[in-house]
């Protein structure tokens, strides 16, 4: 039985399960293109362009799909700019968000297989990640892996956004902005080495393809051969992302974005847990569950899409974003019964999906007396089709693991197929009058799903099931802000969300849609004489029938199953960013998040697993602008996570102690030693510099923090 508990955690993304996939499609649009250092660079006319200045975000389209200044938007927005990515060198999405207030990362220790994280207490792994304004699709254990080297920036839009973007997490969305073609020529190549036998080479080139500048291109690529701190768990990948932009005239633009990636890691990335009589975890030991005989996890993923814009006049333009994506994965995993036994069980998961997302909207600018309007009216359509199958086997000798047989009832095979479609129509009006900014949104979504499963239980009983969902829902959003001349902008907002949930809950019944609402109020301050901002906000979020995951034991064995609960989350966030003329860069944040479960009654009043009430982070950097040390850049940061619980029952035996991690960075432009070395840059990055490693538990399973990781790089840019 213990092997079944362990295997349930190994085979799927932490916080996920094998009988449901996220439904729906959400749409955002934002692209950031920046220069080096504190320079602000903008590609004029490019669809979805935003501007950032060093660490500070200036404009964004995430909140409204228009060029709304960040300090005017009536919603909390946090942006990880290109400068921040260059300085901190994150290796995955979780690391990129380490310094974002209200975002919980590291709940499952170090895991190169999936990006899993929470925002204000809500798990957004399946329902909150977007790429270039369109939903990044996933299936039960097939999630797109992120390569940070292919990004320009990351924007976190907090608060319900279903009214504009469709089915999405009640807490907001994360938009990943791909690197774009540029109107200037550039190129770079970089080699890296470091912890865990890391070897990596990458390149990024772009610019105009013709003299007229009507055709632009960009080609970004990377190859890595690396291990991790866990045996039998590599972190290898090959990544290539071609992009091209056509601008035949000032009124028309088409950008084609593509990406292809092959990755290899380990299917088992966890440690042995001990259990009580009720099969609840009571802690982990530093013994890996897996051996190297059956632990290979390969994944191929790709996306091809375009962004089109045409202006009919200064007042009317049409926009269309379309992307097709596909993923295929084969995951082997295994786990021993305990640290005293090499006997255990093994599993094999094969999964694939294809998806299409298309968003088309008309933008119209109007004037009614003293009030100016920016009106959006649009429709988006998304389709997802996936198939999944897995099977189990058991072994007494780890050197003789039998490959699970999908055709054998003794292997308890599971098969599932699902077709999903979502159609949404929406409207938005941004009203401006003097210092007032009012944003109104309304949307209606139609969701349709057919889910088929074929399961053989441990007792040999085979069950076939077909479940259909046909849901419709209206969502809305309203926000009001007042922009003062001296940089202070108070704001308030209210929004609702809607997410259909495929699959079943523990008793086999179809899941209910998740609905949510949030009230938020805050104040933003943009320093008039410095490139610095501060944002403070309070929020009250309520979510009904949210999906959570936990290890469940019954007569047929143990598995990681989904259930639904109601909860509320309320709190306070504070964030400051600055890039100053004297070379100082600063990120500072604090978050207080208080969660309470409302349903089911058995855990009513408990805190949500893994969510600390208190967390803060501080990153400071200094780029020496002149003098003998010109070209030297130093940075360091600390991340603090307060005490939290390892399960929704809040058992003290697996409660997580408060902890803090230190990161650091140093780089040097070698041309300051010798002009002939112009373009060469050395950089050293370290995460968890003090190598602080403790047990961390989540969803009734325990892991360990990722230890110290050091990466050295040499880059040549021209």
UniProtKB/TrEMBL annotation:
GO terms for biological process: siderophore transport. InterPro entries: Beta-barrel_TonB, Beta-barrel_TonB_sf, Plug_dom, Plug_dom_sf, TonB-dep_rcpt-like, TonB_sidphr_rcpt. Residues 260-689 form the TonB-dependent receptor-like beta-barrel domain. It is found in: Cell outer membrane. The keyword Secreted does not apply. GO terms for cellular component: cell outer membrane. It is a multi-pass membrane protein. It comes from the Bacteria. One of its GO terms (molecular function) is signaling receptor activity. Pfam families: Plug (PF07715), TonB_dep_Rec_b-barrel (PF00593). The keyword Ion transport applies. Keywords: Cell outer membrane, Ion transport, Iron, Iron transport, Membrane, Receptor, Signal, TonB box, Transmembrane, Transmembrane beta strand, Transport. Residues 70-173 form the TonB-dependent receptor plug domain. Residues 1-18 form the signal peptide. Belongs to the TonB-dependent receptor family. PANTHER family: FERRICHROME IRON RECEPTOR-RELATED (PTHR32552), FERRICHROME OUTER MEMBRANE TRANSPORTER_PHAGE RECEPTOR (PTHR32552:SF68). This is Ligand-gated channel. It comes from Methylopila turkensis.
């Amino acid at each position: 039985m213990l092997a079944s508990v362990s295997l349930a955690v190994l085979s799927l993304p932490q916080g996920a399960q094998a009988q449901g996939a996220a439904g729906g499609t959400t749409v955002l649009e934002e692209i950031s293109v920046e220069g080096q250092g504190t320079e602000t660079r903008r590609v004029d006319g490019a669809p979805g362009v935003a501007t950032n200045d060093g660490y500070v975000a200036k404009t964004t389209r995430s909140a409204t799909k228009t060029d709304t200044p960040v300090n005017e938007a009536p919603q909390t927005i946090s942006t990880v700019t290109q400068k921040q990515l260059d300085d901190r060198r994150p290796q995955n999405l979780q690391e990129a968000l380490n310094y974002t207030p209200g975002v919980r990362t590291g709940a499952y220790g170090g895991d190169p297989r999936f990006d899993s994280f929470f925002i204000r207490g809500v798990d957004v792994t399946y329902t909150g990640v977007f790429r270039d304004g369109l939903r990044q699709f996933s299936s039960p254990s097939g999630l797109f892996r992120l390569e940070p080297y292919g990004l320009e920036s990351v924007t976190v839009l907090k608060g319900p956004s279903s009214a504009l973007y469709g089915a999405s997490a009640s807490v907001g969305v994360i938009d990943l902005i791909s690197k774009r073609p540029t109107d200037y020529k550039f190129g770079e190549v970089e080699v890296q080495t470091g912890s865990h036998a890391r070897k990596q080479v990458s390149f990024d080139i772009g610019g105009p393809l013709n003299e007229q500048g009507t055709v632009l291109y960009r080609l970004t690529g990377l190859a890595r051969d690396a291990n991790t701190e866990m045996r039998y768990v590599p972190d290898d990948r090959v990544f290539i992302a071609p992009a091209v932009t056509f601008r035949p005239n000032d009124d028309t633009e088409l950008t084609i974005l593509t990406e292809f990636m092959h990755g290899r890691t380990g299917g088992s990335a966890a440690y042995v847990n001990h259990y009580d009589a009720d099969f609840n975890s009571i802690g982990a030991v530093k013994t890996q569950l897996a051996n190297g005989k059956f632990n290979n996890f390969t994944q191929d993923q790709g996306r091809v899409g375009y962004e089109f814009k045409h202006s009919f006049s200064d007042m009317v333009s049409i926009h269309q974003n379309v992307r097709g994506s596909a993923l295929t994965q084969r995951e082997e995993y295994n786990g021993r019964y305990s640290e005293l036994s090499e006997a255990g069980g093994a599993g094999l998961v094969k999964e694939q999906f294809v998806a299409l997302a298309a968003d088309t909207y008309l933008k119209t600018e109007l004037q009614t007396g003293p009030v100016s309007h920016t009106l959006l009216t649009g429709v988006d359509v998304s389709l997802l089709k996936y198939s999944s199958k897995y099977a189990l086997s058991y072994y007494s000798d780890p050197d003789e693991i039998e490959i699970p047989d999908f055709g054998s009832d003794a292997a308890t095979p599971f098969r599932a197929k699902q077709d999903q479609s979502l159609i949404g129509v929406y409207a938005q009006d941004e009203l401006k009058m003097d210092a007032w900014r009012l944003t109104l949104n309304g949307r209606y979504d139609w969701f349709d799903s057919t889910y088929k499963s074929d399961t053989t239980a441990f007792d040999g009983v085979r069950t076939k099931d077909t479940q259909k969902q046909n849901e419709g829902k209206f969502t809305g959003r309203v926000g009001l802000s007042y922009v003062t001349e001296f940089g202070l902008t108070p704001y308030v907002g209210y929004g609702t969300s809607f997410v259909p949930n495929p699959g079943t809950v523990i008793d086999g019944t179809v899941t209910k849609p998740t609905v949510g609402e949030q009230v938020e109020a805050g104040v933003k301050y943009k320093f008039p004489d410095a490139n610095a901002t501060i944002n403070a906000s309070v929020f009250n979020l309520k979510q009904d029938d949210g999906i959570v995951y936990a290890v469940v034991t019954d007569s047929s064995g143990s598995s990681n199953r989904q259930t639904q609960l109601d909860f509320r989350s309320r709190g306070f966030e504070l964030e400051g960013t600055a890039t100053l003329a004297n070379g100082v860069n600063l990120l500072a944040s604090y978050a207080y998040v208080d969660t309470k479960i409302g349903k089911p009654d058995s855990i009513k009043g408990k805190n949500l697993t893994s969510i600390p009430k208190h967390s803060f982070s501080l990153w400071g950097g200094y780029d020496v602008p002149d003098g003998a040390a010109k070209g030297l850049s130093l940075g360091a940061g600390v991340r603090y996570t307060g005490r939290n619980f390892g399960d929704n029952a809040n058992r003290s035996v697996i409660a997580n102690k408060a902890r803090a991690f230190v990161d650091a960075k140093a780089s040097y432009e070698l041309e300051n030693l010798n002009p002939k070395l112009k373009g060469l840059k050395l950089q050293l990055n370290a995460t968890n510099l003090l190598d602080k490693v403790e047990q961390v538990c989540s969803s009734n399973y325990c892991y360990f923090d990722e230890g110290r990781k050091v990466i050295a790089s040499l880059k040549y840019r021209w």
